[in-house]
Amino acid sequence: MSDPLRIGFIGGGFITRFHIQSLLQVRDCVVAGVADMSEESAESAAALAKSIGVGPNARAFESNEALAADPEVDAIWVCAPNHARVEIMQAIRQGAQKREQPLKGICAEKPLARTLAEALEVEALSKEIGAPTGYLEDIIFAPSLVRGREVLWRRGASNAGRPYLARAAEEHGGPHSAWFWQKEIAGGGVLLDMMCHSIEAARWLLTEPGAPRNSLTPVEVSATCANLKWTQPKYANDLSERYGGEVDWATDPTEDFARATVKWKTEEGQTLLTETSSSWSYVGAGLRHTFQLLGPEYSLDVDMADAGVKVFFSREVSGDAGEDLVEKQNAEQGQMPLVPDEPAHYGYSGENRHFVDAFLGRTKPRLTFQDGVEVMRLLMAAYQSSAEGRTVDPSTPSLESYTPFT
Ligand SMILES: NC(=O)c1ccc[n+]([C@@H]2O[C@H](COP(=O)([O-])OP(=O)(O)OC[C@H]3O[C@@H](n4cnc5c(N)ncnc54)[C@H](O)[C@@H]3O)[C@@H](O)[C@H]2O)c1
């Protein structure tokens, strides 16, 4: 048995708490600690790791650089807001220069940054640091999709020919922190925040298991962004009140709806399509999170909200608003879906199991920062397509300096 991988988290908010909970299902790792701009968040995430037994010595670090330099940290998971990716990678570089033992790996949450230029900078910094990287896209580790894809390709595609269309949608009522709604911090709206999941999931579903990423080439992107709900005066006002005036969607919105069609070519010249849609203007019991993969004689349907359990509360039952049944829960009464094990169901457990194995040298990372850059290239092509009302070739070099909303 190898020594456990000691993970340091940068950013101690919502997603770090999900990752920490998922580590209950991951062997050979412990949480070394958490660095956060807010001491309270760092302390609270470290306390969570301690309390559930995945980080007996987990502590709050005083800075990102101190965490990166610490000999008791082997690998780093970057889970802070999007605008801080470059600055955090610079701090990791500073910290790494003080280490005797090199870092075993650096993971970063989706999206890799705010723009393609920044994503390329993040990737370049990781090369300077010299550690293996992991791009955190949980969905391609979700057990329902992993198993569905495996069966479809093994029984369906091998008999009847490869799949040609993948659809992915991720929709909910809007994110939980002010910064997601602020373009200078988030870099964009729902297209950047959630279509990164859908585009990568759809590409992965269409890719033959074991084949490299470049076996499919994206050749055209067409997209539409819109503001359907949160720019309406009542809802813009609600947002502003919710975040103490920090968010102004009446005059400075990003987008709360996006759809994109990407045309792909196989090495044999066959055309494939992915259709993705994302929204923060969907109100249902929780997340609407669906996937389809279609081929000549078969199809796959996955609805992530359907985990096999539903509960019903009559109007006589009232309780506090919460997310205790399902992420992005919108109601406490009526029929509600229940997801018994969210960290496993959405893929966080599988994702972290994989990257722990990869950074312990047992396998190659399935997704690296380079893959995060490729996802970002498609997202920037989608923004440009929507802004200019035309189809965009994602290999266009000018996307490397493209900034949405300018
Ligand atoms: N994979 C997923 O499904 C998923 C879900 C949610 C969020 N995310 C991604 O995770 C990242 C964090 O999102 P979140 O929901 O946890 O946000 P959050 O607002 O809940 O938490 C962010 C935390 O980062 C801290 N922070 C801010 N700037 C920092 C800096 N420079 N250095 C260190 N800490 C800093 C904040 O104080 C806060 O505690 C985002 O990039 C987001 O896109 C991914």
Q: What topology emerges from the helices and strands here?
A:
Blueprint: E1 5-10, H1 14-22, E2 29-35, H2 39-52, E3 59-61, H3 64-69, E4 75-78, H4 85-96, E5 105-109, H5 116-129, E6 133-136, H6 143-160, E7 165-171, H7 183-186, H8 190-206, E8 216-226, H9 233-242, E9 257-266, E10 271-279, E11 288-295, E12 298-303, E13 309-313, E14 334-338, H10 342-345, H11 348-359, H12 369-388
Parallel strand pairs: 1-2, 1-4, 2-3, 4-5, 5-6, 7-10
Antiparallel strand pairs: 7-11, 8-9, 9-10, 11-12, 13-14
Helix pairs in contact: 1-2, 4-5, 5-12, 8-12
The chain binds nicotinamide-adenine-dinucleotide.
Task: Explain what this protein looks like in three dimensions.
The structure is a single chain. The protein is an alpha/beta fold and 406 residues long. The chain folds into two domains: 5-138 and 350-366, Rossmann fold, CATH 3.40.50.720; 143-304, 2-Layer Sandwich (Dihydrodipicolinate Reductase, domain 2). It contains twelve helices and 14 strands. Strands 3-2-1-4-5-6 form a six-stranded parallel sheet. A six-stranded mixed sheet has the order 8-9-10-7-11-12. Strand 4, helix 4 (85-96) and strand 5 (105-109) form a beta-alpha-beta unit. The longest helix is centred in the C-terminal third of the chain and has 20 residues, at 369-388. The chain is globular. It starts with a strand and ends in an 18-residue tail after the last helix. Bound molecules: nicotinamide-adenine-dinucleotide. Nicotinamide-adenine-dinucleotide binds next to helix 1.
